Amino acid sequence: MGNPTASSEIEIDTDFKVHVFSSSSELLEKLHQTWSSVEKQPYPAMYSSVYGGIILDPAMMVIPIDDHMVHRGHGVFDTAIILQGYLYELDVHLDRFLRSASKAKISSPFSRSTLRSILIQLTAVSKCKKGTLRYWLSAGPGDFLLSSSGCPKPAFYAVVIDHDFSQCKEGVKVITSNVAMKAPSFATMKNVNYLPNVLSVLEAEEKGAFSSVWIDEVGYIAEGPNVNVAFVTREKELVMPCFDNILSGCTAKRLLELAPKLVEQGVLKSVITRNLSVEEAKGAAEMMYVGSTLPVLPIIMWDDQPIGDGKVGELTMLVSDLLWDDMVAGPETQRLLVPYV
């Protein structure tokens, strides 16, 4: 039983008064004041199926608090790159998005073609020529229960993020993560449950590293918190871990399509996916992260041990050039010209 004497001694801060907003206009004014101090608007446009249209006012770019994605993590997402006025690999990202939604038991309020049209129109209205297009499918708003059966309709959200990025040419340090990685059924689905990913990055930052690498239960290399990882062996093989138990990265898969060009040129011996032990991975000549906005980030040190000679690898940069060139001037199958208004 509790101690009534102790509970009666709890102090209440009577000096702090909670403000009560008397009207929606007063609240909106407060939000506008917050955004007015921002030098550059990072989110030029958002789409919400709850609103039924595109929002240009950042103060109104909100999601209902009872959305099942907010309080239960019942949602999936994906991202496409905007570079030089083109959307890169929109279709492959959209396909993965819908596969993730199916695994998460979330139906889309729109057909695939309508989702695609919304995303293209949103990007066009945003006028953003360089950044990211991120989008979510949620079980939708309804109540605060565990089941989504009380959510009458799924919700689709998307936002354009004005973000400057460039080809990565400097190497970074990483650590082996001590945070438990997701089970394969969740790791292979791009869902919004990213707490392990967040904690893994925070752990790395606390140790002075850029990010981390997950090792699976068997002892094989898995992935980074939000990127795939690849290696160049001392025999000049480009190796990526198998996608069976990790996220199938769109950029990583595109790299596997492009890299055989370096085999034809005699630069690489082969390009394969297979299991790698920690010992083999740490003994590689070169190491890199592979992800959408990078597209390749050289890794020069892992757990305070140099990879190869501890410098950015020549083959890593050749691989990076392949992907970057594809993003900048690749075929129409990969790049969609945004019809800006």
TrEMBL record:
Assembly, in brief, is:
Homodimer.
Query: Which Enzyme Commission number(s) are listed?
Result: 4.1.3.38
Its family remark reads: Belongs to the class-IV pyridoxal-phosphate-dependent aminotransferase family.
Name of the protein in its database record: aminodeoxychorismate lyase
| Cofactor(s) essential for the protein | pyridoxal 5'-phosphate
Q: Which reaction does it catalyse?
A: 4-amino-4-deoxychorismate = 4-aminobenzoate + pyruvate + H(+)
The kind of enzyme this is, by top-level EC class, is lyase
Metabolic or biological pathway: Cofactor biosynthesis; tetrahydrofolate biosynthesis; 4-aminobenzoate from chorismate: step 2/2
Q: Which SUPFAM superfamilies match?
A: D-aminoacid aminotransferase-like PLP-dependent enzymes
Q: Which GO terms describe its molecular function?
A: 4-amino-4-deoxychorismate lyase activity; pyridoxal phosphate binding
* GO terms for biological process, alphabetical: amino acid biosynthetic process; folic acid biosynthetic process
The root-end lineage is:
Eukaryota, Viridiplantae, Streptophyta, Embryophyta, Tracheophyta
Q: Which organism is it from?
A: Pisum sativum
